Amino acid sequence: MTAIGPPKIHTRCTIVGGGPAGMMAGYLLARAGVEVVVLEKHRDFLRDFRGDTLHPSTLEVMHELGLLEDLLRQPHRKIERIHANFGAREITLSDFTHLPTHCRFIALMPQWDFLNFIAERAKRLPNFDLRLEAEVTDLRWADERVVGVVARTPEGELRVRSRLVLGADGRGSTVRERGQLEVIDLGAPIDVLWFRLSRRQSDPPQSFGFIGTGQFMVLLDRGDYWQCAYVIRKGSFPETQAGGLAGFRAEVARCTPFLHDRVGELTEWPRVKLLTVRVDRLRTWARDGLLCIGDSAHAMSPIGGVGINLAIQDAVAAARMLARKLRDDTFTTVDLLAVQERRELPTRLTQRLQIFLHERFLEPIFEATEPVDPPWLLRLIERIPRLRRIPARMIGLGFRPEHVTDWPNGFAADQ
User: In this structure, are residues 166 and 15 in contact, taking their beta carbons and an 8 Å threshold?
Assistant: First the structure.
């Protein structure tokens, strides 16, 4: 009798993780004629701990792909300016209406809607295969080269063999751990408490920052509720819990007074989720047969909401630089490292800016024992509106926006 082993798949590229980096890379590579399998460990994309901001750089890529009009039919809200509230005083921090892009705004869209949209488009391509509930547990090796992955599925173990494994499985990446890639921890002095409170039509419009005495909170408008991100010092959640749920509700109400009559919706601690913030990056993003992108290569702080957009820019660069060589089976480790070379500088600059904001903006807020006045730089931006274009460009476009219009020989030729 012939023994039957675990099921096997052979493909050109295996992408681990169905987040923004993984789904966008999968779609672009498949559209360029590369056979792709995307493995996502969850059964769907419906999770709260995801960035909801599609910045103008991402929306520009969608325009270049011819997908923008359909994407914007999905439920979303337009954010043309970012504000911060210092008590009763509101400061406009950035103005996206002057950016040289088709969309001069941030689209606030639940990430699961964005990922479902990309998945639906990708599934139309004959060489795209999305496998849900497929959790990658290990890499496969041959002579020091990564040649595939092993995944756990409801049907049992799945073995995938491929020329390239693209790690896009987030900040807790199994791929980078199994690939023995060195992580540089840059430190993050904050964590975030994540919870929901109901939203009313009479509420103030979307605002990304509420600053109280020793407090900072961000609200994301999700239609009938606010997704709340209450920023705390790193590791201080046990201390917050020790103060009691009633004490925490009072702190939230003090930071955002218009929510005072809704904090009672936090009836138990399980409604408050801890999001541990990390800022790190890989020293080397690749080795033979393996490349990491997005949070797998560089975990970002939630400051500025830029993580999803950096991940998508990584995916665009990786697909643009590797598609033809993957299709022709001519890529080398040097080609993988070239992706890192292109994307590392904008990653470093963004992380450096985030750390600067942690130290110069958040730390003084945490240490404050009386109401905080806006820092001098924000007061200057308030007095000179043209200066709002600078943070708008850094947040909206980043330090190196990627495009599909500069695809080798034109993207259409690679479809």
Answer: yes
- In order of 91, 197, 252, 264, the CA distances from 261 in angstroms are 25, 10, 11, 7
* C-beta of residue 87 within 8 angstroms of C-beta of residue 371: yes
Global pTM? 0.91
The number of CA neighbours under 13 Å toward the Cβ of 90 is 11
Q: Is residue 7 within 8 Å of residue 158, measured between CB atoms?
A: yes
Please state the length of the chain: 415
pLDDT score recorded for residue 48 = 60
How far is it, in rounded angstroms, from Cα 9 to Cα 355?
42
Residues in Cβ contact with 254 at an 8 Å cutoff, skipping those fewer than 6 apart: 212, 213, 215
The whole-angstrom separation of Cα 88 and Cα 20 is 36
**Torsion sign over Cα 109, 115, 116, 118:** positive
Angle CA 137–138–143, to nearest 5: 170
User: Residue 77 contacts by C-beta under 8 Å, 6 or more apart in sequence?
Assistant: 107, 108, 109, 206, 221
C-alpha to C-alpha distance for 44 and 46, rounded to whole angstroms = 6
Query: What are the angstrom distances between the C-alpha of 64 and each of 131, 409, 411?
Result: 27, 15, 10
| Residue 2: per-residue pLDDT | 46
Residue 59 zone, left/alpha/beta (φ > 0; ψ -120 to 50; rest): alpha
Structure tokens at 266: 């936090």
Give the tens place of pLDDT for each residue, 171-188. Answer: 889 999 999 999 999 988
**Local confidence band at 386 (pLDDT 50, 70, 90 cut-offs):** very high
Cα separations (Å) of 387 from 18, 84, 96? 37, 16, 11
CA angle at 287 for the pair 286 and 291, rounded to the nearest 5°: 35
